[in-house]
Amino acid sequence: MRGDARRARNMTIQKATHVYWHQGAITRNDRERLNGHPGFTIWFTGLSGSGKSTLAVASEEALYERGFHTYILDGDNVRHGLNKDLGFSPTDREENIRRLGEVAKILRDCAIVNLVAFISPYRKDRRMARSLSEDGSFVEVFVDCPVEVCEKRDPKGAYQKARQGIIKSFTGISAPYEPPEKPEIHLRTDQLSVGECVHQVMSYLKTNQYISC
Amino acid sequence: MRGDARRARNMTIQKATHVYWHQGAITRNDRERLNGHPGFTIWFTGLSGSGKSTLAVASEEALYERGFHTYILDGDNVRHGLNKDLGFSPTDREENIRRLGEVAKILRDCAIVNLVAFISPYRKDRRMARSLSEDGSFVEVFVDCPVEVCEKRDPKGAYQKARQGIIKSFTGISAPYEPPEKPEIHLRTDQLSVGECVHQVMSYLKTNQYISC
Which residue in A145, B56, B174, B186 is deepest, having the highest Cβ count within 10 Å? Predict the structure, then answer.
């Protein structure tokens, strides 16, 4: 494990001691051979209403059509299941992302291309999720859209509720968003269509040999 | 959702409100078509040293050889990652299994045959994990071995530490184990070889049309 990965893993202290690691007979390589491709993570970060879920869904479709094994981890959906015990405080957001990062790791191990759509507003939390991945299996996509435009779209009526104070700690209104400094892909969704954005994602994946077709 | 599933999900209160469900374009059916089979869960429960991990590894190998997409969720391994913040108190054990159950659900959604090897000592927790699955996609395997035999095997030296009081809340010694009442498969690992046990698992899966070969 690299140093930064070790540090990130140590952010949450392991409570269970006397726990051993069991190596299976079937390895990640075996699963990649069966699927015909390795697993990797495409992590969409951005404000609510910026288009993360829309782009994850459209990108998944494009990948599935090319024969890839895919899965979407949508922040909202995961909050109905695995992360239902977590809210929106900074600590809960961190734990949210830690768990998502661990599930993304499991899915990479399954040779599945997993697309994570999650506001993930803090740089250090995204860095932690990335640190769980092996080199080059993590593609960060900054879904960039001015908050005014997101607020106009407001597909879930969430901005309105945030302005009214009904929703507390709302990213972009009453909680901070730290834009990525060096995302692998930067998409201006106020200027590009969904199709154009997906094209950019696919081009990046092809140029960087994640996909061959 | 069935009533018992709804009740089980409500055991953990959803903290995040104003969260919407995003339906992807690629469905579970699409993934099953791509993999050539649906996903299901084989849940191995039993004492430490009863042979859960060994049987999960050997069963995975047998399934992979038949062309199935597989993954092992080993309790010990998960405690190094997703569940590293949890210990061995009854509440932590419950949360451990809740998360494992949710990840197993994600893997079923990916059309992956997932094998869970986890002591999972409490009936109500196993019931909760089962309730997250759709009818018939959850196969409970009781890995049954007298505690005296497990203690003699003691592959990790854990029983010795439990007897010395170094490990607290150790299932079978200082914490209870509730055997399954109606497991789909019941294996006496003190009487059968690993090969015989795997044969029983495969026979069950074939007879009940989880697998065809």
Answer: B56
Q: What is the pTM of this model?
A: 0.88
Q: Do residues A114 and A42 lie in contact, with contact meaning Cβ atoms separated by under 8 Å?
A: yes
Cα separation, B193 vs B212, in Å, equals: 24
Cβ–Cβ contact B86 with A under 8 A = yes
This model of the complex carries an ipTM of 0.87
What residues in A contact B48, CB-CB < 8 Å? none
- Verify whether the Cβ–Cβ distance A15 to B87 is below 8 Å: yes
Q: Give the model confidence (pLDDT) of B44-90 as tens digits.
A: 999 999 999 999 999 999 999 999 999 999 887 888 899 999 988 88
Residues 137 through 196 of chain A touching chain B, CB cutoff 8 Å: 156, 158, 161, 166-167
SS3 B132: coil
Tokens of A148: 């005014």
- 3-class state of residue B178 by DSSP: coil
Task: Tell me the CATH number of domain B3-8+22-207, given options 3.30.70.1140, 2.60.40.10, 3.40.50.300, 3.40.50.720.
Answer: 3.40.50.300
